[in-house]
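User: Please write out a complete single-protein record containing the residue sequence and its fold in token form, without commentary.

AI:
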Amino acid sequence: MKFTAAQIANILEGDVVGNPDVEVSKLSKIEEGTEGSLTFLANPKYKPHIYTTKASVTIVNKDFEVDASLTTTLIRVDDAYKAFSTLLEYYNQVKLNKKGIEQPVFVSESASYGEDIYIGAFAYIGENVSIGDNVKIYPNVYIGDNVSLGDNCIVFAGAKIYSESVIGNNCVIHSGSIIGADGFGFAPDENGAFQKVPQTGNVILEDFVDVGAGTTIDRATLGSTVIRKGVKLDNQIQIAHNVEIGENTVIAAQTGIAGSTKIGRNCMIGGQVGIVGHIVIGDRVRIQAQSGIGRNIKDDEVLQGSPAMGYSDYNKSYVYFRNLPKIVDRIDQLEKKHTFND
């Protein structure tokens, strides 16, 4: 799909400097620009690249000053970075603008769906499923019985949504994700063998939740595993049964959260963090990558380490740890000197 500089400027409410009819069909970094590509300049340290880039169109700030000749057509806007982000969002909307029901698919007779939907080939839609307007379900998606899927959702290829799950509006579920698998519930019998505890609850994703590729969110044993409005989950995260994650919390890849833990609002959790079950983490907590959380955390704490401690305490302790051999040598020398003096 091709766009002219004039069309892009119209979308961004910008001004064209150069050829308004030049066409672009792809995006690029400014230093890697090629003919037919669109790029942007927001960071001043990349300014030298604008004089050598082969990109056909470059988005710049209105106050950008030209110091040498250019071969790229400029689109001047108030904020180049924000404008490029807007354009990326628009590009995604155009790219993902699929509609209709491909064949073969299976859609249960008891399922219902709204207007302007897309269901890709080999998708399975179970009994009593409710699908809202403008939903896109890509090929090989499985949606189990009694699932509710709100408006403007995107479920990418190969994702699995188990029965009874409730998905809000404007959610994105990426490929390979599994919503509503059984929680890890087993109890030992009198012989020491582990017997499965039935997982009879469900998963609820509120509005504007993003679930990364390969992430698993387990159904509750009783009640619901709840992911609140605006939560963003990276790839390959494990969220166990009966967990609750507060609004606008973001979690990076390979984090694992054990059962029945409650996480507050506006938290930021780094990659490969391990969180034990049955604890409460407050609001606005920040946890650095590879930390291990084994206790309740108060609001606004910043943590690092395993087991995690206060961020500043960790940094001080780490300095001592790195210097431990030198410290031991000094202690040995002091002990030898003391022994000799005795």
Q: What stands out?
A: The first strand starts at residue 3 and ends at 4. The CA atoms of residues 262 and 280 lie 5 Å apart. The mean pLDDT is 93.
